[in-house]
Each structure stands twice: as structure tokens, then as C-alpha cells.
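Researcher: Last one for today. Full complex below.
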Amino acid sequence: MQEIRVELAKTLKDKPVDESKLGFGQVFTDYMFVMEYTAGQGWHDPVIKPYGPISISPAAMCLHYGQEVFEGMKAYRADDGRVLLFRPEENFKRLNRSNKRMCIPPIDEELALCSLKKLVDLDRDWIPKAKDSSLYIRPFIIATEGKLGVKSSDSYLFIILLSPSGPYYASGLDPVKIYVESSYVRAVRGGTGEAKTGGNYASALIAQEEAHEQDYAQVLWLDGVERKYIEEVGAMNIFFVIDGEVVTPALNGSILPGITRKSTIELLQSWGQKVSERRISIQEIADAYDAGKLTECFGTGTAAVISPVGELKWQDKVMPIGGGQIGAISQKLYDTLTGIQWGRLDGPAGWSVDIDA
Amino acid sequence: MQEIRVELAKTLKDKPVDESKLGFGQVFTDYMFVMEYTAGQGWHDPVIKPYGPISISPAAMCLHYGQEVFEGMKAYRADDGRVLLFRPEENFKRLNRSNKRMCIPPIDEELALCSLKKLVDLDRDWIPKAKDSSLYIRPFIIATEGKLGVKSSDSYLFIILLSPSGPYYASGLDPVKIYVESSYVRAVRGGTGEAKTGGNYASALIAQEEAHEQDYAQVLWLDGVERKYIEEVGAMNIFFVIDGEVVTPALNGSILPGITRKSTIELLQSWGQKVSERRISIQEIADAYDAGKLTECFGTGTAAVISPVGELKWQDKVMPIGGGQIGAISQKLYDTLTGIQWGRLDGPAGWSVDIDA
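Model: Here's the assembly. Have a good evening.
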């Protein structure tokens, strides 16, 4: 494995005094990890260096043709002082799947994890102590070749940023209101929906802004072909509890394969809870609601963990769910996942990774 | 209108000696135009300054969420020494339409054109003299706010780059081979297909690479819903001549509204040539081919102007068109468009814009 060079900062920044005001992804630590890719040479010169602006060509392909991928994960401070990551190998595996779709050369997943541990270790004093706060980790890759012909770049930067963050939703576990999007489409089979790439997020901004204007937190995306089947929320995957069964849309190529989604399914199965991944139409959800069988709805994601949905709106139909309370299954999932993440509970083997181990 | 400040370079770069080796979008001039946007303040401080790397936050939203748009246009050197732009107002109008879809604040189109003229004037010695060579112009806007929450950025950069360039296809007017893409999808109604934004290009790279491996220049995209109807080529719009009628896919929300496309339709109409914008299935093209009625096929785009298509491949069906020669309509369009662009012919009022006028 390549040696990871460390370039120490001359001075360290002041850490946030009031952790309750961290917000999400707004404050960055003292260091970042950077590795370059050059055609012919491959990925080279991994370095941890002081966090700061990057200098790139104004013709860099990421700025014009969106050749970029990212990941999101967290480091958690356990009560006993350990610093834990949650299934980080899954994130680097997914990063490489995104790379493949976006024609970006694969990274060495072992080197990436090793670099991440070293980076978090150096910045460990930045990991917040407040409840539900953690160190958000943002690995990303951007195309840097400064040429305007449309093609895959010959050079890239792989960077990891760290950001001490509070809960993704300021309202925490309060149920959020979600709006079923009927005009815009996030992704379609054959497109990039299952890759974690910039374009998917850029295309979703307009729908998100329109949802906010109507006082909804996010939109629920339907499939791009028939506009009938539920896909995801954009920042989260979505689950429903119908008549005692947990259901979530099956991965179909246009849905992001969430790691919290996967963990949720695995936990439910380990509890003997019936859980199905299948195609779900929005009409089925409306029918279940009308029949009084839709008892819970929640989103899953690294940023929000488990986010109860308290209201779904589809066209003119408003469907309040759970009476403003978090449901029993959602609560148990939240307690279990966060328990494992913060090291209060033992999870399945390999889920919790101690950066010092 | 805001004053455009000019920051002169201390030294100028050497200009390319051999214009036949320029390629496309690989060499940049001495200057670039830069203007910043800050929420609350709007677009401010337009400046022409020496071309060079830009410094941005590694958390800049364009690097993570693809909030970015661009345009492509050219400056042409006429035989009499005039420097001409081709319908530049159309590009800035389209940039603002892309901005709207991507939640980017609109630019002042008049200021943009004025800035562009001033920039081209300062770099006018960079405009190549070789036949079919021109100064490629790349206006683009990137989201620069350094925060990781998914939302529209609060700050942007609007930049214009200039690049002396040869023909987009090295083979020039030689007919290109195009492959009908059956697996990947570029865009879908409700998505961002009609915006000139990075994600559309990033998602297309993988299909383009697979086409190159099969010795095809580009792919022809079908619609994302039924995968039956022809959309565009990605770098070009597409036209067919069937039984004496020119047809091109109607703009449907997922096709880029090309300015060369629009100009082509307007020219054909002015010649009394029957031309239709409508839905065209790939089956219709195959049927016309089988019936011997498909006499020409060509792409239109700023970079390639008119690019004859000499072969279409759809699944196992290979359809050679025009016997390796450019067709009469394609040739007349090419001669007329390039004639107007280089100032050898008079075009409709307003098509040709002298930067000194």
C-alpha cells in the first residue's frame, strides 16, 4: 500500500464552542486527505494536509461536465472514548460502483479506509460530544483535466473532508412532511440514479425548493417511466409499514443503494420482522392509508439515520401518518442503529469499526 | 450596466504556431472573464483578468452536487479582418433558461454580451486564421458555496474562457458513424435534458466510451420512457432527410434546444424546403432506410456546425447513408452557415454580430 504522507498545520483552528449550533456540513476540521490520479500513473501521492481551498483549472471537467462522485459517512464518539465508523467498507465499495458508472478510475478501497482512519485520528478532537452529533465524512472525486472536449478526464482528485455536524434535520426525530413529486423526475433506468453523482442532486434542487415553499421538508420521487412507482426521497431511502409488514422499493437501477437502507433491512430480518423489497406504487400507499393499514413511514440515510415521516402529500391527498409520533418500528430501528453507531450496543460483526483497532 | 474592470497580464503567452494542431478546447488565451454572485448582493465585480487556475473551497457545491451550467459559441475571423459572433444573444438566453432549471440566479444578458465582446477584443490575436478554425467560447457558471447541505448555493462564479480551436471532429466534414444507444438513457421528461448542465454530459460518458470501442464517433439517444423515439446525439441535434423532407425531433423537454438546430430550421424554411419538427421513432428511420427514402442524416451543433452521418447502427442493423459522401442539403447548410459565420455571406438580420460594432 502507498505511504500516506502527513503535512502538519502550523496552527490549528478554534473548535466550535457551542456544539448545538453546528448545523450540517458547515464547519470543517484542520485537515483533509487528498490523492491525485494521472493517466498512465494511476492514483498517487496520498497526503493528509491542512484543510484549505483547492486550485483547479477553470476548464477542469468537473466544472463543465459534472464528472464527479461522492460518499457520505460519519465518525462517532463513544462514551468510552473510542472513535467508531459505521460500515465504512460499504461506502468505499459504493464509491467504486459510482466510479464505474461515471467512468472514473477505481480507488484502492483498503488505502481509502486506512487514509480515512488516519485523517479522523489526526482530527479526533473535532468529533462533537453532544447527543446526535458526529463527525460527518465526505469522500469525493472530481475530474480535473483542463480541456473542453467531452470525454472522461485524464486526471482526478480524491479528497476526504471532515465536518463536525449536528443532526441533519434541525427538528431531529420530529416527523417530517414529504411531498410526492409529480412534475420533475430525479432519475430513470439507464441513467445515473444508482450512482452518487452530482447531477442527480443538481436536477433535484428545483423540486426541493418548490417543496420548501409549500412547507415540506423533501420530495418523494416517483419512477421516471410510468411516474407511478416510489423510488426514494433524494437524501434518504423510504420505508413503509403496511399491515405489519415493512416494505421498501427494490433497487432497480435508478434508486441509490443506501447503506442505512441495507442495514435497516438486515436488522429487521434479524428481528424476524417481515420485510420486503419490491415495486410499490403511490396508489398502493394511498389505498393502504385509506384502509388504515399504513401505520409508519420513515426515511433512512447516513445523515438522518431514521427520519420518521409524519405526513405524505400526493397531489391533493394529504396523508398524516402516526399522529405526529414516531412509530414503534422506526423508534426501535433508530435506537438500534444509533446504539451501534455510538458503541452503546453490539451490532453484527464488522458494522462498527474502531479507528484505532 | 456594471463597469467591467480589466486587469492586464504582465506577460502574454506564446500563441500556437501550427494552427492545424490546435484540437478542440485544449489551448486557452491570455484572459478570462469572471463575475461573482453573492446572495443579497447579486452578480457583482465583473472583471477581465489573466487566464489561470481558480481557487475554490473543496466543499464548493459544484464539486459535490453538480450545480453548474455552461454554453458553447465561437468567434470567427472574417477575411476582411472583422471578428464575428454567431447569434450570441441566443446563447445567453439559453444560459438563463438553464439557470432557471438548475436554481442558479439569472445573469444580465446584455452585460454578458458586452463582457464577451470586450474579452474577445482583448484576445483577438488568438483567433486562428486556418480554415474551419475559430475561437471557441465557453461561458459557464458554477456553485461555489462551501457547505455540504443539499440546497441551491448562495454564491456562484460566472466565467468565460476562450480557446482557439480546430474542427470538433478531426475528420472535418467526413461523415461520422453513429450508434443508436439501447441501454443507457441521457435524459427523461421532467429531468434536465433541455438544460446545458454538467450532469447530462457526465451520465453520457459511459455510452460514448462503449461507442468508441466499437469505432463509432457518438451515440444517438432514444427517449427515456419508451426508448423508441429519437432525441439527440449529445454533442449535436440530429436531422434526417426522408423522401425529400427534412425532419428533426421536436423539442420535448429532454432535448437540448440547439442554436445551430434552430438556425438550420430557419434557413431551410427560408429556402422553401419542407422541414418538420416532430416525434420520430428509430423504427421509422429503419423503415425509411429499407424503402430507400433515407437520403441524408446530419448532426448540428456549435462545435461541429453540420456533421454528416455516414452510418447509423441500431442493434444489429447497420444503415450506411449517402455512400460516404455529404448530401446536397447537408452541404448547402454547411456552406451557408459557415459562410454567414465567417462573414462571406449575409445572413438574416442579427445572426452575425461584429464585436467592434
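The two ends of chain A are 18 Å apart (CA to CA). The domain at 5-166 of chain A is CATH 3.30.470.10 (D-amino Acid Aminotransferase; Chain A, domain 1).
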